[in-house]
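Q: I'm writing up a methods section and want to include an example of the input and output format. Could you take the sequence below and give the corresponding predicted structure tokens, formatted cleanly so I can copy it straight into the document?
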Amino acid sequence: MHMKLITLDIETTSAAATFDMASMELSVIGIHDSARDVYEAYTVPELPKLWPIIESADLLIGYNSDHFDIPILNKYYAGDLTRIRSLDLLAEIKKVLGRRIKLDSVAKATLGKKKSGHGLDAVTWWAEGKVEKVKKYCLDDVRLTKEIFDFAVANGKLRFDDFGQKRDIPIDASAWLTAERTALTHTLPF
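A: Here is the clean output for your methods example:
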């Protein structure tokens, strides 16, 4: 059986300076859908098209997604997205290292690629009405997250830049691709 993996990342309309999740609003969500091998970005009015895709996922993959992306996205969803199995790459790294490492540091050391910008840029672009620019930035992060996931599965490790030294992070990805069916049907017709 092929698992349907949804790699996701969100951008918000305001900065996370206060870390007041209740007041944060979604601007854009970007996904990679492994079943169709496509990258897509959605704004809030487009979310009804996204829900069936997410509901059919076997695994949601993100970076800091269990504490940021999924809780914020959940505010817009009729059901409970936390019931879908998820893999938070940052949480996996923290389990091994005991601390958080920025996506940019992991991407640079593991893939030799950098983030295309900063989350604060996306907030500014959104305020300026540059929706396509926010979507592109968000999908760039989805692409990095997917490539980091794929690297960990293939190599059993990730890397990060530790003050100029590349260091390995041993990652046990052996259970990541085992199917555990958790699909939801809150927005699908019965």
